Amino acid sequence: MSDHPPEGLPAYRILTGPDDATFCRRVSAALEQGYLLYGSPAATFNGESVIVAQAVIWPGKRSSIA
After folding, report:
1. pTM score
2. Contacts 24+ apart (CB under 8 A), 43-50
3. Which residue has the higher pLDDT, 62 or 11?
4. Which residues form the DUF1737 domain (predicted)?
5. Residue ranges per structural domain of the chain
6. Cβ distance 15 to 23 under 8 Å?
7. Which residues lie below 8 Å from residue 53, measured CB to CB, with a gap of 6+?
8. Which listed residue, 4, 13, 14, 16, has the most CB atoms within 10 A of its CB?
């Protein structure tokens, strides 16, 4: 595995969106690329739908961010 994320992506990313299958696919895609979950997911209600967030981190950058 590379020390750097693929496709010029940042080492730390926070994925957000409605709590739906599309969001789950985005998190799954990040994991398939080699990212690791960072912290617990968060959820809020915007008056219409649940919005979720999940941070992911590239493994080689863990020690410099934590």
Report:
1. 0.84
2. 43/19, 49/18, 49/19, 50/18, 50/19
3. 11
4. 11-57
5. 6-65
6. yes
7. 14, 15, 16, 41, 42, 43
8. 13
Beta-carbon contacts of residue 41 (< 8 Å; ≥ 6 apart) = 52, 53, 54
Residue with tokens 């926070």: 14
* The token pair that represents 17 in the structure block: 């969106």
Give me 33's structure tokens: 């690329």
Residues 6+ apart with CB under 8 A from 42: 52, 53, 54
Distance CA 62, CA 54 (A): 16
| Both tokens assigned to 51 | 């919005």
